[in-house]
Automatic annotation (TrEMBL):
A Pfam family the protein falls into: Hexapep
UniProt keyword annotations, A-Z: Acyltransferase, Transferase
Gene Ontology molecular functions: acyltransferase activity
Protein name: Acyltransferase
Family: Belongs to the transferase hexapeptide repeat family.
Organism lineage string: Bacteria, Bacillati, Actinomycetota, Actinomycetes, Pseudonocardiales
Domain of life from the UniProt record: Bacteria
């Protein structure tokens, strides 16, 4: 019933980890994936090549997110990655065009992705290989990030572009506003 070849034997532990992970809570799932214990990783999130993922403390990974770390993926502390977001660090487009889309193809291109600390990556975002997202950036839902994002800005759209830049004073004022509103509840 099961294949006994190199690829199957390499993939089977990952498949079983994902299956078992569906029955765990966030903290148990983080431990199963070898992530920091402060990580909250929701159901159906998938990590491709978790050994190439560097994740900071206090990160949140939403339901159904796919983190492809095959080309190297770094996520800074206190960063959230939204529901059903896709982070790609590889592309096989050229392997497809050359009819060489097979395991181990030398036409699969891998480029690392870096997401800074204190970032908010909305739901249904697509991040393409080779992108760097600066610290304290916000990526609005349904955006496609195909090029680098500067720190302390809000980007949105397809392709994502900068809509707002903000400084520390703006963030502190917004934090004070939200805390005051929440205290009134």
């Amino acid at each position: 019933m099961f294949f006994d070849d190199e690829r199957s034997n390499r993939l089977r532990p990952q498949i079983l980890t994902e299956l078992v992970g569906q029955y765990l809570n966030d903290a148990e799932r983080a431990r199963l994936y070898g992530l920091p214990e402060t990580t909250r990783i929701r159901e159906r999130a998938k990590i491709i090549n978790p050994e190439r993922l560097r994740l900071g403390e206090h990160c949140w990974i939403g339901e159904g997110a796919v983190l492809d770390a095959s080309g190297g993926l770094t996520v800074g502390e206190h960063t959230s990655i939204g529901v059903n977001t896709l982070v790609f660090t590889h592309s096989s487009w050229l392997a497809n065009m050359m009819l060489e889309n097979h395991t181990g193809s030398d036409l699969i291109e891998r480029k690392p992705v870096s997401i800074g600390k204190g970032c908010f990556i909305g739901s249904l975002v697509v991040i393409m290989p080779g992108v760097t997202i600066g610290d304290f950036a916000v990526v609005q839902p349904n955006s496609v990030v195909a090029k680098d994002v500067p720190e302390r800005c809000l980007v949105a759209g397809n392709p994502a572009r900068v809509f707002q830049r903000y400084d520390e004073e703006y963030i502190r004022a917004e934090a004070a506003r939200v805390r005051a509103e929440n205290a009134g509840d």
